[in-house]
Amino acid sequence: MELTLLGTGAPLGLPRPGCPCAACARALGPGARAATSLLVDGALLLDLTPGAAFAAARAGQSLAGVRQVLLTHPHDGPPVEVPAGLPQPGRVPDGRELALLTGHRVRALAMDAPGTGYAVTGPDGMRLLYLPPGAAPAGLVGPAEPYDMVVADVVGRPDALAKLRAVGALGPTTDVVAAHLDHDVPPGAELARRLAAAGARAVPDGTVLPVGAYEDVPDVPRRTLVLGGARSGKSVEAERRLEAFPDVLYVATGGTRGGDTEWAARVAAHRERRPGSWRTAETCDLVPLLKEDGPPLLIDCLSLWLTDAMDTVNAWDDAEWATGGERALRARVEELAAAVRETRRTVVAVSNEVGSGIVPATASGRRYRDELGRLNTAFAAECEHVLLVVAGQALALRG
Length: 399
Prior knowledge:
With 399 residues, this protein is of the alpha/beta class. The protein is built from ten helices and 19 strands. A seven-stranded mixed sheet has the order 5-6-7-8-9-10-11. Helix 8 packs across helix 10 (363-380). The mean pLDDT is 90.
């Protein structure tokens, strides 16, 4: 089965008409995208959009052989003109299956938002799943057979991938292609980085893809360290890297701090951002978690883990520090780094970058700054990806 992506953009396209935002201003030339429309084996058209015939011609394809046109979502604005020779567009009721004379079978899937998803099985047995913009599958049950390719709104609804992964419908060899791309993320390197974290990729309009070819599937990084200053957006970045995965264990190292209303408000804000399927563990005992098998870990943050470790060895007392506290702390950092090196779990950890600010006024403050720098260095050495977040922008230091 062969798939031609006539367009990969949001329903209004990218750039949006008349939009002055920075993302739209940069989405020019190769970065421009027409509204998403898919041509399957020249016989099945999923979503009829303006200029579909011209888009097919630019891709070296023709719509003359199209036998069925299916729509996935309500189309706003004036009706789209149906090119001469094409059948009238329609939608398959949820749960029903349509068999084409070409040997393709199309099953309609219910969504949690207006629209219909389509699971297409080709004559060769290859399986494609196409989801509408802003929607995720509803009522999935497992175990399910993995699709060979998924085309979905990865940026707008990463939880759709999490739902598919939870039931086995999205496996390690599934090629995930992002569609319905809007101006939420600047095009280019930033878009590619965010998609790769979800195990997905973007391709230009007009790309022809054989369904079932796996060589281009991005590798999801096993270990990632996200650094940043106060309110830099580092926690949001870390959460974003795992929002396409189910059953994430959020490891909060800061505890509850009873009576501290400001801390309680920060904790509540973090909880509200996280998907409901994630679990939370409040602990600084990270080594056993890293040694266990299980779902991905999001550790937020190493800075507070270090505070607890320094409290444990009484690092704030100069005499204790000189007579064994320093050695004890270094041993704990080495144990943590070794556990990160050997872990089989996907790990995203957050830490503060404090070495670029003013020099702390106290000896204990300087000690903490120095030890956090050493901890960050040791942890980063074991990670495939290291990011520095500045003003909400993630800069790749490694990977």
